[in-house]
Q: What sequence folds into this?
């Protein structure tokens, strides 16, 4: 029997979890300053520390050759990165990649929706925390709801197969809009997903201990008006879904606190600096930028580093909203 490892071993970690999904952050910058994500005054990374789009394309290729089937482009706000469409076009051509997708705040989507669709993006996630202009501005600190709604309309016209809205419900801030957001999604045949706030980085003037709304509470509020039916449908990420009987709308819940999903984790992240993060809630990482800059343009050293990294993927996160955040990186620097 040949006991040698295959030339391209699949990405399986110590706990038998198969990594098939990579979230690639193309920038830590953003045109919003959402209260749960960032501080109002942020220092962003200098250009020299950020990967070029060519380096990111090579990382994407390495992962896909190692068996990854889903790539999500994220940030910061991915659509503020100059020329980012060229990266989508490059990644969209990779044989073996089943899904290329993005998470966006929607502010630049009106300009880019059609080109994204052409580059092979079939489904997108747009973050939307409020449907009230002034409140939207207060949550994002600088964003315009009109621009985002325009972006969402452009995405509908561009013919994406699925549009998912992401919302972070916060107590006393936007939790009275849960049903409005569900209705907005239902009217447009979108999916809506509610995310429990995670303790990534400290935010001045924002207390996550009091603002985080558990998924069960969100579910209970939706059940006051609709019938939620269980479904086993998944979209390849951490969200668990239920379907609204009356409208057919799929409602997702990402519940790192109330329903830990680490056992079935299939994901890793690459920050815009090229740090391969093995877990959203831990600091275990490998410096892919060093590999890339020691062996420019070479795929094999990159693949070796990625395979070796599987040995340090931790069992799970240890998020604790009652303690001071142990992670200093904010979500925008993590690749949410
Ligand atoms: N800028 C894009 C956007 O807002 O969609 C992409 C990056 S953003 C970091 C990705 C997702 O992470 C968004 O849906 C956002 O609401 C969510 N997010 C940011 N900070 C979070 C936190 N501390 N806890 C939970 N979700 C968070
Ligand atoms: Fe920007 Fe997205 Fe963070 Fe909001 S959640 S500040 S849009 S990166």
A:
């Amino acid at each position: 029997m040949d006991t040698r490892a295959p030339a391209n071993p699949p990405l399986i970690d110590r706990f038998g979890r198969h990594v098939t999904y990579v979230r690639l952050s193309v920038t830590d910058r953003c045109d919003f300053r959402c209260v749960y994500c960032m501080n109002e005054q942020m220092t962003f990374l200098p250009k020299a520390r950020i990967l070029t789009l060519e380096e990111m394309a090579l990382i994407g290729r390495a992962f896909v050759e190692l068996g990854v089937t889903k790539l999500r482009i994220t940030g910061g706000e991915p659509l503020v990165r100059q020329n980012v469409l060229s990266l989508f076009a490059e990644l969209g051509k990779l044989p073996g990649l089943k899904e290329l997708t993005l998470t966006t705040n929607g502010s630049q989507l009106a300009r880019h929706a059609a080109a994204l669709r052409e580059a092979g993006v079939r489904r997108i996630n747009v973050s939307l925390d409020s449907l009230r202009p002034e409140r939207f501005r207060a949550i994002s600190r600088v964003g315009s709801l009109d621009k985002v709604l325009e972006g969402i309309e452009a995405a509908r016209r561009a013919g994406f197969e699925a549009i998912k809205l992401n919302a972070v419900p916060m107590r006393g801030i936007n939790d009275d809009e849960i049903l409005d957001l569900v209705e907005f999604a239902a009217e447009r045949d979108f999916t809506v997903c509610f995310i429990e706030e995670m303790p990534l980085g400290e935010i001045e003037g924002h207390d996550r201990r009091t603002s985080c709304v558990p998924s069960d509470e969100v579910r209970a509020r939706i059940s006051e008006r609709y019938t939620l039916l269980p479904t086993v449908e998944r979209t390849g990420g951490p969200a668990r879904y239920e379907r609204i009987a009356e409208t057919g709308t799929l409602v997702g819940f990402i519940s790192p606190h109330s329903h830990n999903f680490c056992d079935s984790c299939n994901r890793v992240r690459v920050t815009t600096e090229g740090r391969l993060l093995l877990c959203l809630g831990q600091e275990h990482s490998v410096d892919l930028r060093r590999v890339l800059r020691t062996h420019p343009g070479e795929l094999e050293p990159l693949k070796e580093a990625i395979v070796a990294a599987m040995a340090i993927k931790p069992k799970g996160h240890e998020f604790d909203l009652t303690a001071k955040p142990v992670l200093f990186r904010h979500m925008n620097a993590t690749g949410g």
